[in-house]
Amino acid sequence: MTDMTWEKPSQPVAAPRKGERTKFLIGGILIIAAVLYLIISGTTGNTQYFMTVASVQNSADYVGKTVRLSGAVIGETIQYDSQNLILDFTIANIPQETQNLALTLHEAVSDPGAARMKVHLENQVKPDLLQHEAQAILTGALGEDGVFYATEILLKCPSRYEESVPDQSIKSET
Amino acid sequence: MLAEIGLVATLLAFFTSIYSIGASIYGERISRKEATVLSGRNAAILTFVLLLVAMMGLMGALLNQDYQVKYVWSVSSPDMPLFFRITALWGSQAGSLLFWSFLMSAFSAVATIINWRSHRRLMPYAIAYMMAVVAFFIGLTLFIENPFSRWWILPNNPVDSQVVDAAFIPSDSVAPGAVELASSANGLNPLLRHFGMAIHPPMLYLGFVGFVIPFAFAMGALASGDLSTNWIKASRRWALVAWLFLSLGLILGGRWAYDVLGWGGYWGWDPVENAAFLPWLMGTAFLHSVMIQEKRGMLKTWNMFLVIGSFSAVIFGTFATRSGLVESVHAFARSGIGTPMFLFWFSLTFISVGLILWRRNRGELKDDHRFTSILSRETLFVLNNFIFVALFIAVFWGSFGAPILSELLMKTNITLGKDYFMRVTPPLFAALYILMGIAPVSAWGVSSARRLGKAMIVPLVLTLLSLIPFYLTGVHTGGALVAYGIVLMAGWVAIFETYRAVVVRVQMQSENPLLALWSLLRRNPRRYGGYMIHLGITVIGIGVIGSTLFQMETQKTLAVGESLTIGGYSLRYDQLLKGQIAEDGRMMDIAEVTVIRDGQELAHLRPRRDFFPQTQGLNTMTISGAYSTVENDFYVLLVDWEPINQDAATFKVYINPLINLIWWGSFILILGTVFAMWPKELLPSRVRESALAGALVGKGA
Questions:
Q1: Bridge partners of B609?
Q2: pLDDT tens-digit series, residues B213-236
C-alpha cells in the first residue's frame, strides 16, 4: 500500500508562515518575469513583416532585411534545376486580398501592370503546390539585384473544393 | 432524396436542441416541474438521433454518388474508392461542420445518460449549455455552410450565372443532369487521401467536442450553485476522454505530415497546428490541477478558468483557422462562418468569466486549504499549471496574439516564424519535464528538501547511466546531454515510483510482479495510468530532441546504379517505373532504391511522385519512402527525374534520428490514458474488495 503514503489525510492547515509567503511571492514574480522576458525577446528577435511585392520593391529600406512576402505565382516563369535544387520563379503583386482568393490571384497574374518580382530559392525540393496562380508566401530578403532570395516558401492554392461551380455546360442536359 | 432527409433531420435537430435549452432551464428554474426538465433531457437525446440521421443522409448521398448535391460534387468523384468516399464526409468545411455537430450531440447524449442520476442538480444546466453549443453549430450548417444544398439551373438568368446552389428549390429552376455533374466532379483533395488523414480529423474533432462536456458541467455548477466537488467528478473523466482524442488527433496529424507533406518533419508551428495544441495545453493543466481540488479543495476558481479556457480555446481555434484570420498552410477556404464564430466565442467566454467572477464575489469559490510549503506537491502542481499556461500564452501570442494586435494597432501585418517558437518553447518544455521528475515524489501538504532529495537518488543515477549510450553514439554537446537528461529523469521517476509500489505489493500480497503491476493499474488507474503517460511523454521527448537537433539531409542526382551516402548509409538508385496507374486514377512515377549499410542491403524503398489527372489545382504529391529503425529513419524523396533521359533522378534524403520514439511514445501515452480513464467500477469483485479493504485501512486513494 505504498500509494497510501502520499494521501495523507488532510489535516487542518494553518495559514502559511510569513517567510513562506514571501518565498511564494518572490518565486511567482521571478517566474512571471522569466516567461515575459522569454516571450518579449522571442517576439522582438523573430518578427517578420508581411509585405506586398509592390511595397518591398518601392522602398530601398527593405534590401537585405528579412521580410515575409506574399505574391501570386506566374506559372510560365517557374524554373527548377532539380540537380542542384534551385528554384526560380516570378510573383505578381496581390493588391488586396478578398474573399475570393482564386479571383484575386487570377487578376494579379493577368494584370500586365502589376508589380512583379523574381524569386530565388536554393536547396529546395519543388513544392507540389507551386503552380500557376498559387499564392506564395515567402520568407527571405530582397537582394541588391532586385531578386528576392527566399529561405522559406509556403504555398496556398485557392482550394477549388469550396469555391468552384460546375461548368455551365451541365445545363444543356436537362 | 437522401439529402432531403438529411436536411429535414438537421432542421428538426435545430429545433429540438433549442427546445431542450428552454425546457431544461424553464423546468428547473421557473416552473420546477420534473416533467419539463425530463422533456428537455429527452430533447437533447433526440437531437443526437436526428443528427445521426442527418449524417447518415449525407453519408448516403456520398455513397450513392448524388452529384446534384454540391457537397458530394465537390469532395468526391466517380473514380474514388469506397474508403475515401466515406472519409469525404469530413473532407471539406460544410460536411465537417455537420460531422462536428453530430459528434458533439453524441457526447452530450452519452454524458446526459451516464451522469443524469449521479449529478441530477447539475444536469439541466449542463444540458442547456451543451445544447446551446450544438444549436450554434447546427445553425452554421443550416444557414451558412449547408452540406445538403444542391445545384440548380436557372434558365432565365444571364448565361454565366445560371448554375447556382441552394438548399431549397429556387423558383423557375431545373435540376441539372447527374451524368454531366459526375464527369466534372472534383474528387477529394489528394492530400487528404491518406489513412492518417482519414482518421486524424475525426480524432481531433472528438477531442475538440469532448471539451464541451467538462465545460458544460463547469457552467452547470456555476449556474446551479452546486459548487461542491460534484462537477469536478463529473467532468474529470470527460476531460480525460477529450484529452485522449485530442492527443491522438495531434499525433496522427504529425504522422500524416511526416508521411505525406515530404519535408522530413512532423510539426511546423503552423497556426492551425497551434490552434489544436492550445486546448491540449490548457486541458493538460486542468487534468493536473483538478487533482488538487479533489484532494485538497484548493484552486477552485483556477480550475473553472482552465476548463472554460480549454473550451474557449477550441472555439477560438476553430474560428481563427476557418475564417482566414491567419496565414497557414492548412488551406481552409475562407467562408462566412468567421463572424458568427467570433461572436459565439466572445459571448461564450464573456458569460463564463462573468459567472465565475459572480460566484467568486459571493465567496462560493473559497479554497479549503492554503499553500504552506514551497516543496509540497500542490505547490509543484501549481508551478506545473503556471508553465502550461505560460506555454499556452506563448503559443497563443506567437500564432494569433502578435499578428492580430499588430494588424489592429499598427496596421502592419506581421508573423512570428518558427524561430520564435523554437526559442520560446524549449525552456518551458524543459521546466515541465523537470517538474514531471520532481512532483511525483513530493508529498501533499509539506515536503522537506531532504526527503525529496533522497527519493530522487535512484532515478538520478539511472538517468546518468542511461545517458552513456547517448554519449557513446556521438551526443557530445553539453546542451543536448542536459536536454536528454532532463527528459530521461522524468521517465525514470515514473518507472521507479511504479517499481517501488510493485515491490511493496509483491512483498505484502505475495503476487508475482506482473500481476502486482496489473493490480496497481486497476486499483489506482489514475496514478499509474498517469505515470505511464509520463513515460510516454518522456519517450516522445527523446524522439523530439533527437530528430530536431541531429537531423541530417542531403540531395543528389543519380544515374541508375549510382549511389549516394549519408550518415553511414548509402542509397542505390535501381530503376524508375513511370506512369503506374493506381486504383483511384492517380499516376505514379516510382523510383526503386536500395538502402545499404556496411555492405548489407537493408531495404528496398519506393519513393514516388503521384499525379492526379482529373484534379485541378493541387494535383501532384511527393510520397516519401522510409526505412525505420530504433536508431533513425532513412527518409527519401524522389524530387525529380530527367524527362528526356529517364536514367537520372534526383533524391533528397533525410536521416531523422530517434524519430520513431515519437510514435512509440505516443502509443505508451495512449495506453496510459486508456488505463487512467478506465472506470474503477468495472473492476473484478476480487480486486474491488481488496481496494475496499485498502480504503478502510488508510483513507484510500
A1: B589, B622
A2: 999 999 999 988 888 878 888 888
- Please tell me if residue A67 touches chain B, with a CB cutoff of 8 Å: no
Q: Would you call A42 and B398 a contact, using CB atoms and an 8 Å cutoff?
A: yes
The answer to whether B13 and B44 are in contact (CB under 8 A) is no
Judge contact between B553 and B654, C-beta under 8 A: yes
Within an 8 Å CB–CB cutoff, is residue A170 touching chain B? Answer: yes
For the segment B410-452, what is each residue's pLDDT rounded down to a tens digit?
777 777 878 899 999 999 999 999 999 988 888 776 667 787 8
Q: Per-residue pLDDT averaged across B39-58, rounded? A: 96
Shortest distance, CA B109 to any CA of chain A (angstroms): 32
Residues of B whose CB is below 8 A from A52: none
> Per-residue pLDDT tens for A4-38?
444 444 444 445 556 777 878 888 888 889 999 98
ipTM for the whole complex: 0.76
Q: Which residues of B touch A46 (CB under 8 A)?
A: 416-417, 419-420, 423
The 3-state secondary structure of chain A reads CHHHCCCCCCCCCCCCCHHHHHHHHHHHHHHHHHHHHHHHHHHHHHEEEEEEHHHHHCCHHHECCCEEEEEEEEEEEEEEECCCCEEEEEEEECCCCCCCHHHHHHHHHHCCCCCEEEEEECCCCCCCCCCCCCEEEEEEEECCCCEEEEEEEEEECCCHHHHCCCCHHHHHHC
- Residue A26 Cα distances to A32, B198, B249, B446, B673, angstroms: 10, 50, 39, 19, 36
Q: What are phi and psi of B405, to 5 degrees?
A: -60, -45
Which of B175, B417, B424 is nearest residue A174 as measured by Cβ atoms? B175
B537–chain A nearest CA distance, Å: 22
Residue B93 is nearest to which of A47, A162, A169, comparing CB atoms?
Answer: A162
Spatial neighbors of B180 by CB under 8 A, at least 6 apart, are A166, A169, A170, A172, A173
A60 touches chain B (CB under 8 A): no
Q: How far is B163 from chain A (nearest CA, A)?
A: 6
User: Could you tell me how far CA B540 lies from the centroid of its own chain?
Assistant: 16
Contact B412 A3 (CB under 8 A): no
Whether residue B30 is predicted with pLDDT greater than 70 in this model: the reply is yes
Q: Which three cell numbers stand for residue B51?
A: 443528427
Share of chain B above pLDDT 70, in %: 92
Cβ within 8 Å, pair A170-B701 = no
What integer is the mean pLDDT of B94-114? 93
Residues 18-37 of A with CB under 8 A from B: 20, 23-24, 27-28, 31, 35
- The torsion angle over the Cα atoms of residues B60, B63, B67 and B73, rounded to 10 degrees, is 100
Contacts of A49 in chain B (CB under 8 A): 412-414
Smallest CA–CA distance, residue B45 to chain A, in Å, is 32
Nearest CA distance, B585 vs chain A (angstrom) = 18
Closest CA to B329 of B404, B272, B403: B272
Q: Answer yes or no: is pLDDT of A165 > 70.
A: no
Backbone angles phi, psi at B39, to 5 degrees: -70, -30
* B503-514: average pLDDT: 87
Closest CA to B590 of B554, B626, B624: B624
